[in-house]
Amino acid sequence: MNALLFALYALSHCVGFAGFALMIALRAYDDESADRMLAYNLFLVSFFAYLLPPNIAFFARSFLGSAALTGEPWYYVADVARTTLLMTAASYFFWRTPTKTAPRATLVFLLILSQLPIAGLLVQAILIQGLGLSAGAIAAVRQMLMRGHVFLIAGLLAWSCAYLKTHRAYAVDDECGKMMDLTINGNLAFIPVFVGVSFLNFGPDRTWLPLCAENVYYAAVHAANVAVLALRGFTTPEISAPSRPRAEDPFPEAAQRHVLSLSGRERDIIELMAQGLANKQIAGELLVSEHAIRNQMHRLFKRFGVRNRVELAELYRRLTVQSERPRR
User: What is the pLDDT of residues 227-240, one digit of tens each?
Assistant: First the structure.
């Protein structure tokens, strides 16, 4: 059984690393896209780091014959570090995914919540020093705090489901929308399994069955993620690189009317965007909020029927050239 678990562990991580490499390989088409990709990569790194201590504890016990490591002081410190890292990276990634985000105060609250495991570490130290607890009582306190970490992560995952569902209409493009749907459904399915399995894992021993369930789930999630990333990277290359204009492409009449109906502010936004400025820089140039620029950009995407900034800038350039060309 241990050999089967080792194979599942290797499979899930190999698939996960494939997704990580694919995400790095995809080209960002603007500063916001690059920022979103960086947030996702940091989330993946923290996710791998989160899996390491429990699997090390299991394999050390199963293959090296060591005692249970989950009660060791270093294991509790590692659990604090991995939980804090995962929640911090996940908070920023989930908050940053839609083009229209919640107020920055929401992100600040999530980041503060992510540091609660460190506060628990301080509480544990105070209890040990102040009450002179026995070794068994100290181990019980650590186990209780580690199980509390599980509820913190589960709460963050539940919040992410509600948040992404609320902001589903603000996906950058269709592929991003699919990733949001995958995240919502995956988290909803994972929360009860995660809570149940984690309670078993913090006991005196880690049985192989919960770990098999964990690694099968992770392999499935990673595989689905790789499939979505591959769809984005190979079947829709125009998302990652500017599309080349083709002389034979027809210009939809609706698009031509939209160009003629653009306000001066909308033209300024598109032209600054075409120069490579990010939303924050455009907001600074036009003396408006970044939130207003994001909303305006989203409306322009819908009006012209495009999926991203590159397509909008290219279509605007071509239509503008066409409208300025003298008629015979």
Answer: 766 665 554 334 33
